[in-house]
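Q: Could you predict the 3D structure of Integrin beta-like protein 1?
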Amino acid sequence: MHAETLVNSVLVSLLLILLSALSGFSISLTFSLRCRTPDGLICSGRGECECGICICQVTEPGTFYGPRCECHDWICPTYDGKTCGDHGICKCGKCFCDENWLGESCQYQEECLLSSKTSKDLCRNAQGVVCSKAGTCHCGSCMCHNPHGKGLISGRYCECDDSECLDEDSGEVCGGHGKCYCGNCYCSAGWHGDKCEFQCDISPWESKRRCTSPDGKICSNRGTCVCGECTCYDVDPSGDWGDIHGETCECDERSCHAMYDRYSDDFCSGHGQCNCGRCDCKEDWAGKKCDHPLSCSLSVEASQKKCRRTSSLPCFGRGQCLCGQCTCHPPGDKRVHGKNCECDDRQCEDLNREICGGHGFCSCGRCICSDGWFGKHCQFPRSCDMTDKQSKSLCEAADGVICSGKGSCHCGRCICSPQEWYISGEFCECDDRECDKHDGLVCTGMCSNAAALLQTPTRALTDLFVMDIEVL
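A: Sure. Here are the predicted structure tokens for Integrin beta-like protein 1:
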């Protein structure tokens, strides 16, 4: 009898424990359902559920918020690089525009105060086409055509066609494993391919480990990491062999180029071998770029000093210094001359390759103008037969500012500020400081509207999303 009572007591205890567990599970399930989004994610995958309340993660550059952590303001639509076009506020990923502004990114003005000409000029892309023929111009802003409402045409000038990101099989943007920016897929970690269609067979952490260079940088900051392998940025136009190589892109052969090597295919002045960015000189040659003969009675420093004179570069950056003597480059071009190659008569040529505009002569890279003419290329007549109003109307840039605010107007033509040597262009709109520099040399070609050339979607977005796509 006593044993039976004991068994019943144990059974009752077990039953109570089971009921308690079931009750707890039911409550836990209820709490979990409160935290679950329609697509089945707990707290949108951005937080933890505690007693039916989502505790959202804090992450750069902002915070997740909302009942299920569904809101994050830093991904609101942007226009010209500004969130909500700088004419609205971002709430839970959506722009709420200021008065008199409309559009997904608050980029359109309801009332326009611009003239039709000025408006269209502001809508022209780099090729001069209004809204890239993929949209209509409204008050200086392009309204892109998206007949199916998918928003695949985008960009300030409607230059981006994101339909190029659609996966042919699934129809999803970047296969559902990345984001599309101006027709290019930027894949999530662990995925790669033009449409992010391929999955890596190693973890993102292992991929990062394999791509980390000895200095602790991913692909030495000279390439992209895909599934544990570095693809180096190839700076050789031929595409056959780039100047950057190595398992983690640690070798940069550009460091082996002497200034005048750009006129040939040589490394190390033609007197050495480039090994992972360092010159190993042949016998009888020395110097960082193997440009100093050991037969020279001068030291490397004395030779360089003799070739520099008043310049910060040997031979004014226009020639080869050999034992204190300059040989001007490019070879055979008599426009570059002088004991230290200090004269560059190419600077006297205008855009049409005419010397001093046909109104003067060149003296050591400077134009000496004939009477009645002035300017860097003698391009401005001193007399003018138009009124001040007529003149200024011809000097207006696309934004309506005279000579872009960086020069003065004379007889309908802009004279860019001589103190700002880097400003050029018909309306002083170009800033040549943006031209690529290497080893102290400005680009060997002509710098034209460099700022616009650099602001390509790929470049801008690579900077913006580098944290997301750095390692796959």
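Q: Anything worth pointing out?
A: Helices lie at 2-35, 116-122, 204-211, 300-308, 388-394, 450-454, 457-464, 466-469.
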